[in-house]
Amino acid sequence: xxxxxxxxxxxxxxxxxxxxxxxxxxxxxxxxxxxxxxxxxxxxxxxxxxxxxxxxxxxxxxxxxxxxxxxxxxxxxxxxxxxxxxxxxxxxxxxxxxxxxxxxxxxxxxxxxxxxxxxxxxxxxxxxxxxxxxxxxxxxxxxxxxxxxxxxxxxxxxxxx
Length: 161
Known about the structure:
Elements: E1 2-8, E2 14-19, H1 22-30, E3 44-46, H2 84-102, E4 105-108, H3 111-119, E5 128-130, H4 134-142
Parallel strand pairs: 4-5
Antiparallel strand pairs: 1-2, 1-3
């Protein structure tokens, strides 16, 4: 079996097609059997794609090195590409999060305790970020403590390279 990234000519919808060979794809395309699943167009061509070359069995992937607020790492085998607008939106959100974290203090596993102390006026107001267990999050929300999840993973400072 061979997998092709395909794209419809009218609207540029991208999708994947599985064929027994390149010739099988060509035959099906000539007969109008290859259609875009989004718009139904039979004007479908192979899209530009990177070859899927497997790694040798004795090679390990290079570890991800990402500092807090750094670029978002690529995800292997993430599936079909996002529309450009969605990718741009996610980049903008990641950048906004990185900027917000620059003016925020990491408090680690003490997040719930520190957030509660700020809420009740025991500590001076400041932007903090850290880790909290689901039950701690639930308790903070029930108490009216204003918190929000971090949308993209953050590497704790002691674990950053």
